[in-house]
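Review box. Two proteins, two foldings.
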Amino acid sequence: MSRTPWRVGGAQLRGRREVQADAFVVGGDRATGRIAVAVTDGIGDTVAAVEAARLAAQESVTATLTATPEFGCMTARDRLAASENTADASIVTALFDPDHSRIQIAWAGLCRAYLLTSDGQLQRATYDHSLGDRIREHTARQGPLAPYDRMVTRTVAHHEFVTTSVPEHTTVAFLFCTDGISAGVTDQTITAALLCDDPDKGADLLTGEVGDHSPDNAAAVVLRRTS
């Protein structure tokens, strides 16, 4: 990956769950400098959820490197269906291509993407696909809506993926994470993690803040610009 201006780090923890059903995969192409990232959150505390998350992350990254994040997510859907695993997952996938001026992102569910701009502003690049968000969108309700915020309305296996892109030249760092991270840390902690020169330390800061006693799995991938 000699052409890429990005360094990558990742971390995850199981929390109080029986299994680690969050997964992340990072892949690169040395010839093109492309980097693909996928973070997935298996739905349920089961071995099947673990396998679904790992399969979706790996298949999405492999396919994204050849095309786009949306194609990566669609490939993950096809591979999951072919596996006959009935478990499901949330996903966020991104492509960093040195030949393009924008970072492409596709997602479904509760996995998120954040970015830190060159002027130090933290921004969310994605929004959640949950019943809680749907209720807030169509009513006057505000604030958390437990348990509806954890009821996923788009997944790897069901409904369409959503895509977006963000400018590469004004972004200095990215976070891709599961809701175990986003629900367990503040925006200030995310900003501090993205300001770390070492992306591994940034990812460790996030999982450390969540802590081993978290009720949920957590996974974080941090990318930091080198130039």
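Next protein.
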Amino acid sequence: MNSDNQGVGKVEVRLKWDPSPWDQPPHHLDIIAATYSAEAPYGRPVYVVHFDSRSPDGTINMSRHSQTGQGFGFVEVMVLELNRLASSFARVVVGVAIHQDSGRKTFGGISNAGVLVVEGYKELLKNDFAQVAGSTAATVAEFTRDTSAAWKFHQMVRGFDSDPVVFASEMGSTPRP
């Protein structure tokens, strides 16, 4: 863990939710991270990391994945080693998307959903998605590199109405007024 003047170093994004009732299709949520270059911090992502991928340099990867929410506590975990990211990156946005394979599902329809962002033992964000209950996807965190090359954490809970593929392309966009 880094001191505040060194910025954020290595973080974990943890996700939990309760499984769907036995007679309904499973709820499948995914953590998604998108990286942005220093030249275009609000442009297209350089690359996107999700359950089926990892960053080319291994600095962002999934250490735990669930397609049903079954298990104890946080059932999906993404590790971001920001302190190892190349200097060409200036921004990383992390979000959560709900798969829409079996009809429209929103955060409000999934019980006990929650996200936790930690650096070591320090809690950076804890959220239950209540403020985006009608959304199918949401950003939760933004990490930006400042002029001293230190990474800073910004809470960024913002709802979207899109499936995981579309969400991955729009999650780093500039918020609408």
